[in-house]
Fold these 3 entries.
Entry 1:
Amino acid sequence: MKNFMDIFKIDELKKYVQLKEERINMQVKDFVSNSQELKRIAFEATNENIEPLKKMYFDQMGEEHNELILFAIAAIKSQPEEERQSLIERGLPKTKRYFLKMLDDINNDVI
């Protein structure tokens, strides 16, 4: 019976495995260095998962914003007309441009 090492030629098998590992490492290195392809794959993978979450978030935020707007209008209406503009400017600094545009309609009970 032949020796196990003679049958399989272990040195050649080691060389084959080493060449295969080097080829795989080169493929990985090429893939990683091609950042555009990697970005595209990452974008597609994340975009598929994010889109439903974005839609759900915007739907919920739309409802919440409507609720807050109605509350703010009610709070503005509860003040005397001469104090409403001051209240909007002091209390709503980030959204005052919207409410100041609506102030005439609020004062005339259109809204």
Entry 2:
Amino acid sequence: MPDLPMKDIREISLEAVRSIAGSQAGEAEVGIGLDSSDEPVYHITLQLDRGQQSILSSADRLQIRQRIRDALIEAGDERYPFVRFLSQDDWDARTRARSP
């Protein structure tokens, strides 16, 4: 399983969310962790502009997750992507909380 650069995974994630949410898609953050069986996984957080968070349906979110998964598999990366969506306000609050 090839190790894709984080910037490539971030770009895959942004392309997937923008294909559904359009220009309302904001930032993406990617990390690597372990799942409950100690297998490596991606933790992907996607930021959506105000209002977009509530507009995306469950089917839209599922489609974004699936596009990310499909792109990773196509690139030869079998790691599972855990994807979460944050509103602009939640993204900003998280950023402030992480600041020293």
Entry 3:
Amino acid sequence: MPAATFGAVGTLPAEATTGCGLRVPRASVSRYHEFVTCLPRRGHARGGHRRLADRLDHHLPGRPGTTAERDRVGRAVAHHRDPARRFAAP
């Protein structure tokens, strides 16, 4: 039996608010850089990934009380720098 029969599956709204504040049909919202054509949205995504990578890179390693290992932090930084680079490319 489908889960919707019991009301366990919610319905997604038809629209979503983008990073640049526009309300667009949910079908045109994507987290994958290949499908984002709006330059303000690409810039918003790029900036968010870049800021997070910078915060992780500069504030986490070596901070007193931090239990994160340097190689794990390095992987997290690389994980966010890659999308930032990809969202920057047209």
